[in-house]
């Protein structure tokens, strides 16, 4: 299992990587921009992309659209602090597999994130 984490906050990336790898046995690469994510997806293989929404230059929905336009068939989770329903709807309309808000207890957030990652990967086995 290998996940690509995309977020413009380096501290959040570090925390996400640590939680997923240490407590949930999910190997993670991190990038701090959508542009870097697109480059990584061309050079390496991942089971899931977990992306923030609110990033400079290209937001998470635009990243998702770009991935889908490039015909890269990879599960996508929008993991964001922006909790507007319109963003969640937009994410799902553009092919996101899941939407998780970054609110509350970090331990609970990462537990939920890891459950969704494992579920999506098992659902997509053979996709």
TrEMBL record:
InterPro entries: Bact_response_regulator, CheY-like_superfamily, Sig_transdc_resp-reg_receiver. Pfam families: Response_reg. The keyword Phosphoprotein applies. CDD domains: REC. Keywords: Phosphoprotein. It comes from the Archaea. Residues 2-117 form the Response regulatory domain. The modification 4-aspartylphosphate is found at residue 52. This is Response regulator.
């Amino acid at each position: 299992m290998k996940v690509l984490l995309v977020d413009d906050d380096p501290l959040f990336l570090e925390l996400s990587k640590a939680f997923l790898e240490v407590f949930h046995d999910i190997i993670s690469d991190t990038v701090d921009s959508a542009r870097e994510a697109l480059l990584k997806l061309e050079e390496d293989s991942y089971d899931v992309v977990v992306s923030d929404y609110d990033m400079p230059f290209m937001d998470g929905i635009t990243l998702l659209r770009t991935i889908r336009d490039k015909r890269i068939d990879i599960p996508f989770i929008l993991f964001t602090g922006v909790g507007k329903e319109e963003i969640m709807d937009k994410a799902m309309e553009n092919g996101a597999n899941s939407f998780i808000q970054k609110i509350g207890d970090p331990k609970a957030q990462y537990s939920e994130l890891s459950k969704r990652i494992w579920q999506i990967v098992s659902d997509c086995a053979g996709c």
